[in-house]
Amino acid sequence: MKIVHFSWEFPPVIFGGLGTFITELAQKQVALRNEVTVFSLNHNNNLETYEKWNNIEVYRPQTLDLSSTYLLFADHDFRSWGEYFKFFADVVSYSTISASQFVNQLVRKHGNSYDIIDSHDWLGVMGGMISKRELDLPLIFHIHSTEVGRSVGRGSHVIKDIEFEGGQVADCVITVSYAMKDELEKLGFPPDKIKVCWNGVDPEKYDPNKISIDEKNNLRRNYNIADDENMLFFVGRLVTVKGVDSLLKSMPKVLEDFPKTKLVILGIGDLEWKLKSLAEQLGIKNNVIFRTEFVSEKERIIHYAASDCVVLPSIYEPFGIVCTESMSMGKPTIVGARGTNGFREQIIPNGEKQCGFHINPYDPNDIAWAIKEVLSDKNRSIWMGKNARKRVIEIFSWDAVTKRTLDIYKEFI
């Protein structure tokens, strides 16, 4: 089939799980002999406006800075965004220009035909809704997170309205976990439209056997982590919903029993300086290493391989590809399991298939308990890691995710 994606993120620009998802999904769709076109934001207007990337047609129309124009009729919600209002204006510009190019150039002028539109989050659904109305093509609204969840109950009412309207206009809503399905139903999305399709990972790429001992040792040495020290690893954005503050608050308890332990935090975000200040206040500055920059995927994989335990105490996580990556790398993984949290659908916390622990992400003592459980028994830790990788291969491969997605598409073509 011929598939069009509207996705704000696409290589070479990837900010998080959404970008990883669309990159892997589009490539797998092509591998299964589908024709795939992606419309993505041209960040800073310095990327190619068209290219063939891994047999995917990628369009990045150049946008105009419409922020001053939109402010002429913006309400208080928009004006409160301050300097971030340009971001919203750029998304609207990207959406309308991309939809216009798709409808007027690719379809009406050049006579190309397409089977389905897949729009990702509020950032892409506006382009999808415009295109659906013009071409009467089936629209899939792929929801990776919601404004309510990302903002911990606050956020922009305009973005909430865009998400809600997308759910009403779309023929189908695909979301990434049953936890997210429950959230969407509570927000008023039509229950009969919502289908769940978990995200995935490439177990061939995320394979602990492909990382050498030297690569692991070199990374640990770069962080001054000795051979007899434990390495805890967190990867993700440094924002409230990721629960990094609670993780830091758990460290004094961990260090009481395991003083030779260091926590590596890999990520960027608005809370960077607040978290660094918190580490100093807690007296754990020498046991916490902040790496606040983007690193290559290969280097991220080495981080997983070099660690003894991965800790992801999110308070809101629709799915969480970092957990799947950790599992694929054979690591016991500790995850937040309260509220809307897809982590708990990935990690089995007990029994013969246990691969990690569920914790209350609001409670540093609970986080510390789980970390100490992992560090106290190395053989059990290795066993949980093996269970984790086995679970990924059985359930969370990109092949399985892509086939499930294509099956859903076929219901609406």
Properties at a glance:
Rossmann fold; 2 domains; alpha/beta; six-stranded parallel β-sheet; 413 residues; 46% helix; 17 helices
Global geometry: globular
CATH architecture grouping of the largest domain: 3-Layer(aba) Sandwich
N/C terminus separation:
9 Å
Helix content: 40-55%
> What is the total number of structural domains?
2
If strands are numbered along the chain, what order do they take across the biggest sheet?
3-4-2-1-5-6-7-8
Structural class: alpha/beta
Number of helices: 17
CATH class of the largest domain: Alpha Beta
Strand content: 15-25%
- What gyration radius follows from the Cα positions, in whole Å? 22 Å
Identify low-pLDDT runs.
none
Average pLDDT value? 95
